[in-house]
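JOB MANIFEST
job_type = single_chain_structure
chain_count = 1
residues = 454
[input]
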Amino acid sequence: MRRLSLLLDLYELTMAASFFEQKVRLQATFDLFVRTLPENRSFFVAAGLENALKFLEGFSFSPQDIDFLKQKGIFKDAFLDYLKTLRFTGSVHGLPEGTVFFPNEPLIRITAPIIEAQLVESCLLNTCNVATTLCSKASRVVVAAKGRGVYDFSLRRTQGADAAMAASRSSYIAGCCGTSNTLAGLTYGIPVAGTMAHSFVLSFKSELESFRAYASTFPDTTTLLVDTYDYYRGVANAITVAKELEVKGHALKAIRLDSGDLAAISKRARRVLNEAGLSHVKILASGNLDEFKIGKLIARGAKIDVFGVGTNMGVSSDAPYLDVIYKLSQISDTKGRVSPVMKLSKEKVTYPGIKQVFRVYTKKGLYQKDSIGLEGEKVEGKPLLEKVMERGKITIVYPSLEKIRSFAADNLKALPTKYKNLKGRIRYPVILSRSLQRMIVKVRKASSSKSAKV
């Protein structure tokens, strides 16, 4: 991962400079979490931890970074000299990628000297926001497909190269079968897939000629786009090519539907293909799909085997960001005195202390409820946050993308069906432990007293 130390909001640096000058030497714990669910959502799927850890482990300011900051004329030389040797030395607990989680549950928990913890805020938020947003969206598409294949076709519509890579990786974790993004295939080992564009068909004198040309190049992996001119003729031409391939010992893989009434067209295409003895030929559909459209197609009995989903999934069009935040929850001074803290702003209240998330399962292995409690507290359930970094060094052998994908699938399987409804009307129960509730009352009183002082 390239160095991103200056990928931060300027106020992170100005606060750090003031901490440095005032000799503030606090140890701080910050929680990174999502405050609220977007409309129609009932769960999130965690993603982005691996890149976050790589960022933290490589955190440093280069000579070019220091020169840039010096040219701004904002910071004193002593602070810039301090930044030259600064590294992240804290510890990190995180939810494993692929974990289903809910509002206010820490996705990442960081404990570090306050300057370090403050300076890494912006990049961590950026990294986890985009990855978790896209993974959560893709998981809904996969759930809606009800076991049918889903491929990520979003590359050309995502907001830049980094977003395209995040979309491919996150959608694969969520259960997509592969991506059209070849660089993601190289980088992450994700299966890549592609068909043809209308421009290819239009480049030949006839549709049939274009189909024959493509099939001769890829005799065992051809998917033919059949809607350039007329669906009925397109399917007929595909059948002609399929029969020609059979004579040569090959097989047409699939046809692709990209516009119109996909449910009706797919039913007719399936019938015609079957009548021609081509029941093995799959039907792939694309064209501005999302979980809602896929759900409606399946409800109408569409004969679609695979969905290619682009823009709406790759940019999470109905919820393009999450209300992800990074808030201080505890500080301790050089004498070891610990002070849990919380924000009391209306509608932006946070929870104090070093926290853990505990999950209770039913006898059938399904999620029953979660509790947010204090680290070390005896709370019913399995603790979800795992230690992943100590003294600035990654402490885990990071799992392969295939293992993360499998873990995400297990998480989604364990989420009761009622919480997977696309309208997101039912909320999963997340409660606060008794010790955390008592701490909140205590910190509220102390905070009110602090704010009243002049």
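[summary]
The chain has a mean pLDDT of 96.
The radius of gyration is 26 Å.
exit_status = 0
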